Input
Amino acid sequence: MSFTDIDELAVDPHLATVYEHGWQSWSPTRMYRVGESSARPDEPWQHLMRFRPGVALPSSGFQGEGLLVVDPGSGEPSRRYAATDPTLDVPTIRARLEAGRVVVAANRPQQVTVSTAITLGAALEGFGDAHRVDVVRPPPRVWCTWYQYFLDVTEQDVVENLEAIDRLDLPVDVVQVDDGWQAAVGDWLELSPRFSSMRDVATRIHASGLRAGLWVAPFTVAQHSSLAGDHPDWLMPGGGTNWDGRLTGLDLTHPGVRTHLRRVFEGLREAGFDYFKLDFTYTGALPGRRHEDVSDIEAYRSGLRLVREAVGADAYLLGCGAPLLPSIGLVDAMRVSPDTFHPGLADTDPRGRPAVEARAWQQGRLWVNDADCLVARPSFPRREEWAGVVERFGGLRSFSDRVAALDDWGLETVRRLLATAPDPVPFAVLPEPYRR
Output
């Protein structure tokens, strides 16, 4: 992949900053001092799953996917380098410091627009306004199984917490079953032995006056799934690793894949689910040859449109692990960070804070920002810190605890944060990192 220099500007080496926007929900996104270099993956699987697959990273400096902003730190305007149409083409944009000047390069310079703004924050807001969707729908308030039960969730766990939500009159709109209900990733028509009927689960949720939500990784296939063995011609290689094995993506242009996905999502909607957390969707945009000769982004967007058609315009779609700019206009909400924590890592700093803050400008412009679930039980040592992040930057409010495990602080915090979910409009105050 070749890069062409497109601009350079003088900067204050002590005060200048660079905003680097990552490819997908889990990609690093933040501001850096101009003399730093941004994060790099340690392992190949991390590149596949946290950065942009098929796109190399420079040894130093910065690399944004479709968006990069430089604040020269000299009092001069910030300069924004951005995809002309991020729903069609997302160029890779690099910046490097050379002798007191920042040199900016792109792999497809004809697809990059260069503009200025008074501040870095204004540059980001301007990009958001330029690509603002017509309607950003108010999000529901959600209880999610993931951070309490992980892959071991059972049908009884859902029922127990549904009853507790009802008994305590918590302000929840959606009860969402996360990963673990399906037989395998890719096998969405078969159930885990811990669930007897997803239709019955949805019916039970509806009986409490709530909406039924479901986690699905629609474009991802685990190597041990039945689908991988039955339809190898549907697969796109190079999806990373999880669930104790390799992952592949689906060729979203293949007629068989499209028929299969439509059947899956029409069936889930008919069973009573109308809130979908679409996870690991980066695999729908993996580089490679497809059945039809279209770009990775065109294939990805065609898959999201198919899901929307199958579940109906009134269903609520949350993207996660999703290519951000290519998703504009096709999801209602977007995870803007990696997971809060992984099993066995609950004592570490909440992992998503830098990206949540740096993507705050997207709220109410491109979608509703999902900062990830509040975890409010006493066993999560960072719960107060993370509650503060969710309160400030969480557009979509959700929590993921066994309700019975919440103490007085946890219950009060859950109740307060769900009850005060913000309207789906841009956040009024830019996050502190923009004002270094």
Notes: Residues 255-270 form the longest helix (16 residues).
